[in-house]
Amino acid sequence: MTTKHTTIGLFGFGCVGSGLYEVFQQNPTLQAQIKKIGVKHPDKKRSLPASYFTFNKNEILEDESINVIVELIDDADEAFIIVSEALQRGKHVVTANKKMLANHFQTLIDLAKKNNVSLLYEAAVGGSIPIIRTLEEYYNNDTLTQLDGILNGTTNYILTKTLNEQKSYDEVLKEAQALGFAESNPTMDVQAFDPKFKLVILLAHAFGVIVRPEQLFNYGIEQLSQHDIRFAKQRDYAIKLVASAAIVHHKIQAFVLPKFVPQNDSFYAVNNEFNAVQVSAAFSDKQLLTGKGAGSFPTAAAVLSDISALRYNYAYEYHKLNKHLKPEIDNNAFIHIYLRYSNSDVFEKLQFETVNEEYRSKGYNYIIGSISLQQLIDADLLNRRDVFVAAIEEVPHQSKKTTIDSTIKLAESIH
Ligand SMILES: NC(=O)c1ccc[n+]([C@@H]2O[C@H](COP(=O)([O-])OP(=O)(O)OC[C@H]3O[C@@H](n4cnc5c(N)ncnc54)[C@H](OP(=O)(O)O)[C@@H]3O)[C@@H](O)[C@H]2O)c1
Questions:
Q1: Dihedral-angle region of residue 380 (phi above 0 means left; psi in -120 to 50 means alpha; beta otherwise)
Q2: Does 17 contact ligand 1 (Cβ within 6 A)?
Q3: CA nearest ligand 1 atom 19, residue
Q4: For residue range 28-59, what is the model confidence (pLDDT) as tens digits?
């Protein structure tokens, strides 16, 4: 079936929804029209006449002339109800809602397939970066070995400003909230749930595996302190919140963790609200895609691209999902980390495989070494205010478990 004329029922007229409307106004040649907009608050002032809006979702969902639902609301549970109903009614869906997708991924994919309609979500990951279609189409037959991403614009903005403008984390967060970059409740971003939801989506297209968000470890930047910032500056590291996935021995290691990145790292200069995804593939080797990861127009541009793709009946084929080999998530891999702590009781729960460096001074202690991700998860110390963990490049280590004395000397020489 070719979607000749696209008649859209739009849900949400906030940052992205109103941006999409504006983009439509500036592209009069689009063979698509927004017929009705579903919103929540009747008393809100709108930039369009009241006749455009409805507060009753069924007015849109039951309208048979509407063949495409664009879902851009900020309530993942309600979005799931709207999107499921739309798919069941045989309407194509375009959404930017990563939380909804990550929590109901298999159900939604099955619903779209059963009803022979498309479910597209380019805007849900990396804002304007065309990563989903790139993974689906370009890397269709190349075996991916690794994928890393800066997938959250809010935290990248906070980290950039904190490091470059000598401001504290709390100061920059307040500034980001005032600018509308960070939400009043920034938990999803700063605790790294948002990039984890995006990683769930990427895993399906990159490696052919659908996981529950709870299966992936996420640790954000809430505990970042001036000590960690000074540590980064002294070594000319940038700090990035990185979602990582790699295939190791037919298993997938995937997690979200802050990372100290050196100047020669592709992510070093990805700043502010920019996102980036680096894909490592067997034949094409490393490739970096970067672009604005948030904001009204960049996100609307990705939504528009999906709407346009519906005109030629585009649907994800999930080539890799359909392969027989289903890689499993493996949290037993060793990762190289920087762990800052104030009380050495943390070591009652941790057993480092190797220690490259250790530093102790009043109130500021850190250790750099390798530890298994599973051990880090089991230790249950990551909610402590006095602990901050970040991945760090592996420097060639000395003997296994170097003596504390010699490493203290080494650490002191750089402080
Ligand atoms: N902002 C970004 O840069 C960005 C980037 C990528 C993806 N996204 C995703 O895009 C989606 C929208 O984000 P946003 O930033 O545009 O949100 P937003 O500015 O907070 O706007 C949310 C909109 O959803 C409407 N809404 C909320 N609950 C509703 C319900 N139950 N029924 C109908 N409408 C409802 C609100 O209605 P009222 O107008 O009546 O309040 C509002 O128009 C989210 O899934 C977000 O994660 C956003």
A1: left
A2: yes
A3: 14
A4: 888 899 999 999 999 999 999 999 999 999 99
